[in-house]
């Protein structure tokens, strides 16, 4: 039986005409901002499908900018997010592309940091203000932003899932959801854990020290005030 959230039943408190095109867009961008971290210099929003067709009329453009600035969907400043971005020196660009067989309300974030590092994130607004992130820097993932999340990129060999899960168990970290992705057997794979509590740096270091770990990324949960 599916568990329904308050977003599913009531819809979100928000500024704007559409839970998918406004609230969901703001939440997507806020998660993208959390993933990218501080010192964002510029953002290119690549809009797909319905987002591309109605982004101005439904306020999707303002909502996306607001989310990158860390605003919640109901923030009164959302309507003025473009001007706020200019005041903060954040460069914004909108582009349009067919991103393939994905949800109509999908956006690709191309985020450039002041260090020059570029981070690419793809996600969808799936209705009622709910969102799904499914690609980070070209890696297949699947998470909602509602939970603390760790993404572990590793060599695809037997025992890796068990070893990471054991470390989380030993550190009293409960796994809420877990997904594993790979392109080809024996090459690279990615584990995504959504947990009930923040994992912490010491736990991440334990996982890194296992061997056959290429990269580990911790993403704080979406917190809306």
From TrEMBL:
It catalyses: L-serine = pyruvate + NH4(+). Residues 149-221 form the ACT domain. GO terms for biological process: gluconeogenesis. Pathway: Carbohydrate biosynthesis; gluconeogenesis. SUPFAM superfamilies: ACT-like, Serine metabolism enzymes domain. Its cofactor is [4Fe-4S] cluster. Keywords: 4Fe-4S, Gluconeogenesis, Iron, Iron-sulfur, Lyase, Metal-binding. GO terms for molecular function: 4 iron, 4 sulfur cluster binding; L-serine ammonia-lyase activity; metal ion binding. Pfam families: ACT, SDH_beta. CDD domains: ACT_LSD. PANTHER family: L-SERINE DEHYDRATASE (PTHR30182), L-SERINE DEHYDRATASE, BETA CHAIN-RELATED (PTHR30182:SF12). Belongs to the iron-sulfur dependent L-serine dehydratase family. This is L-serine deaminase. It comes from Clostridium estertheticum.
